[in-house]
């Protein structure tokens, strides 16, 4: 059971005295070393409603406090002040290096995404570019790609063409499924500066992680590069298109940078799955039976 917090004479401290007894730089305040000041400031910035008293209490819950290294940890008046904390204790005060690194990355992500969201509204600094960004949005939307693939599939008169288009359809459906599942699991809200005026959306599209447009653009461009014989300039254009679709998501304010980055990664990996499971009349004859009967 935690013992009550005491002053340096060993008397229990009231809540108010406890919260005011430590000054910046004192051990209970997270001071006494550069590492601990950093710890204190990161704790305080965790959530807007968390005050410094709460942060100090968190510090007092740390393994170092429990081990009695701090003078406020219930030691008597006769005990001498503890020696400076060894390196490993400083590490203990830091609850999770990975957590802090992730929080820092997220802070950079939010800051950068806000800066890049220059087409988020008509009155934004690049607001006049919004129609162009929306055109890019449609170019990476699921519906034109799905309809185009189905049309090509039914119009195709070669086996090779049907096989490629059947796999393209599989890729698009796999992408829709994976993006929907991840969005529903992660539930990251779209940036506050986004206007929800998107062309046909699903209910999960109120969430932003990962970007469905970025994943589709990466998937499509990898698919096209691998299955269409294109001249070099067209190959470069294909990759550029995918990149610009991703960038336009952040510029429109639809996504944060990390949503788009993960979307690209997801789309890239999805192509590997499609390639691995490549459907053909040999391994999936049922899918091609429609044409066999013609
Ligand atoms: C077959 C079927 C369920 C088709 C639905 C196609 C559809 C509405 C896809 C949604 C595309 C979309 C708005 C994705 C959101 O992209 P973000 O980049 O904003 O995540």
UniProtKB/TrEMBL annotation:
Reaction catalysed? Answer: (2E)-geranyl diphosphate + H2O = (2E)-geranyl phosphate + phosphate + H(+); (2E)-geranyl phosphate + H2O = (2E)-geraniol + phosphate; (2E,6E,10E)-geranylgeranyl phosphate + H2O = (2E,6E,10E)-geranylgeraniol + phosphate; 1,2-dihexadecanoyl-sn-glycero-3-phosphate + H2O = 1,2-dihexadecanoyl-sn-glycerol + phosphate
Q: Which GO terms describe its molecular function?
A: isoprenoid diphosphate phosphatase activity; lysophosphatidic acid phosphatase activity; phosphatidate phosphatase activity; sphingosine-1-phosphate phosphatase activity
Q: What class of enzyme is it?
A: hydrolase
Q: Which residues form the Phosphatidic acid phosphatase type 2/haloperoxidase domain?
A: 163-275
Primary localization class, coarse: endoplasmic reticulum
From its record, what is one biological process in GO terms? geranyl diphosphate metabolic process
* Membrane topology summary: Multi-pass membrane protein
* Location of the protein in the cell: Endoplasmic reticulum membrane; Nucleus inner membrane
Name the UniProt key words of this record, in alphabetical order.
Endoplasmic reticulum, Hydrolase, Lipid metabolism, Membrane, Nucleus, Phosphoprotein, Transmembrane, Transmembrane helix
> Where, by residue number, does the polypeptide cross the bilayer?
135-154, 166-186, 223-248, 260-279
Compositional bias annotation for Low complexity:
14-27
Q: List the EC numbers from the record.
A: 3.6.1.68
UniProt cross-references to InterPro entries, sorted A to Z: PAP2/HPO (IPR000326), PAP2/HPO_sf (IPR036938)
Region feature (Disordered): 1-37, 68-88
Query: What GO cellular component entries does it have?
Result: endoplasmic reticulum membrane; nuclear inner membrane
Name the SUPFAM superfamilies for this protein.
Answer: Acid phosphatase/Vanadium-dependent haloperoxidase
Instruction: Tell me the protein family, please.
Output: Belongs to the PA-phosphatase related phosphoesterase family.
Protein name from the UniProt record: Polyisoprenoid diphosphate/phosphate phosphohydrolase PLPP6
